[in-house]
Structure formats: structure tokens, C-alpha cells
Amino acid sequence: MRFALLIMWLLHWLPLPVVARIGEGLGSLFYLVLRRRRHICLTNLRLCFPDMPETERKKIARRHFQVYVRSVLERGILWWASEQRLRRLIHVEYAMPMEEIVTSPTVFMCPHFVSLDVAGVAVMLESSLCSIYTRQRNKVFDQALRKGRSRFRPVKLFSRAEGVKPIIRAMKENLPFFMLPDMDFGFKDAEFVPFFGVSAATLTALPRIAAATGAKVIPVIASIRPGYTGWNVKFDQAWQNYPDASLTDATRQMNAYIENEILAMPAEYFWTHRRFKTRPNNEASLYQESRPQFYDTQP
Q1: In a domain, 296, yes or no
Q2: 144-158 pLDDT per residue, tens
């Protein structure tokens, strides 16, 4: 891991187009080699886009591997490049000024697109924040990740085991909560709601925290700019009167928003995560390669 971090540090001195092209080249290779991850990616795409031609799904999957590996190498720029360079590369669009956003409790809802680390940096260039953090198994990488994500402003990181109470306390001090709500963490604190028409175990923390704190929910979407010119980060309009319905309906609203953003850039969503891992009523896994409808022998 020390060697990998050294490579990332060395690469961050290069222009972004060079780093990006190296990442895309490696991603094309990994698409061919990492059979299990390719299977997960294509299974997700088949579940979410059943009417899409298989050739198009494979095209999206291959592109996803390219941009995902690219995003990993680009973290070196996010962790070690100067603030001036980052401000040139990160193009931010605010629906309302950041100074107004942080004057009251706020949840930044950031779905799992490959450039989500860019969204975190965009926030920290202007404001401190709090977030949930899962400690990495490798201590060297864990230290580099923590340091890289908190070098511009103090950041309060809480473990998922601590629950929402420390988050609520931090938010009452007007510390924005940077939340990644769209992964499958099992049955706990989750409900099964549709995601592209497929029942998915989805955390209900977003509406629960918003209701408990009176916080405004502002989606933050990071994407890759064309022509290797950097990244876009969109701070969308705050959701009005959220949550104004049941917990299930509010969670479905969140998923519907994420679906709409995915349709605009399908290859940049984190398809290699087993989004439908947890199944209701102990149903069989959707990722078993022996299932004929999802088996794939061609890259």
C-alpha cells in the first residue's frame, strides 16, 4: 500500500489529462481481468435497465471501470495538489451561496458517483463538515485517506456504530453533515424501496435526521467534465418540506432523485457495489453467477 500511495503521489504532479488517461487505460484492463466485479456491474445494469440492449450495458460497464479507476488515481490530486490548482479544476454550481447554506442545519446528500471525493473537497474548500467514516483495513491507507480528506478544514468523523446522536449534536452547531446514503448496509435502519423498479434495502437515515434536526437537504452531485478539464460539482436546490410524508415515501423520493441523476451519466455511478445484496424474505442472491439470466462469459 505504501508503494501504491507513492505512485499516486508521483502521479499528482502530472497534468490531469495524463493521470486521467492512465486511469482509463488501467480501467479497460481491469474490466477484462476482474471477472467477479464485472459480473456484479453487469448484473446491476441488467436489473436496473432490463430493456437496454446488452451491447449498450457492456459499453456502460466498460466505461464505468475506466472512470472508476481514473477517479482512484485522481485522488492523488485531491489529496496533495495545491488549493489554487483544485479551485481551477473543480467547477462549482451553487443553487444558493455557501454562506447561506451553513447558517442552519444542513445535510449534503451525495450519492455514490465515482467523483464523490471531489464533492467532499468542494465542501471543505468552503466549510467544515461532519460525516460517517468506515475505518480502512490498511492503516497506512486509512491515515492517508483521513489526512487527504481533512487538510483544508477540520472534519468530524463518526463511525456508523455510534448512531445518529453525535451527528445531530454536530449539526446543531451548524456543521453540515456530508451523507452518502445509497449503499446496501443490510436490514438495520433500512427499508425495502424501489431502485429502478428493483426492491433495494435503503437506509432511512436521511429523512430521519432531517426530521430530527429540521435540516435542509441539499443534493450534491459530482461529475467528470468533458475534455479532461476537471470536475463539475452541483449543489442543487434544497428539497422543500422534506420529509413531508412517511419514512418509506421519503426514502423513495431520495432514490427517485438519484435515479434521475444516474440517467444523465450512467457510467459514473458505482455499479460495482452489490446494491441489491440484501434481499427481502431471504430470497436468493441476485449475484450468483450460476443464475442463467445473469451469467455472462464475454467481457
Answers
A1: no
A2: 888 888 888 888 988
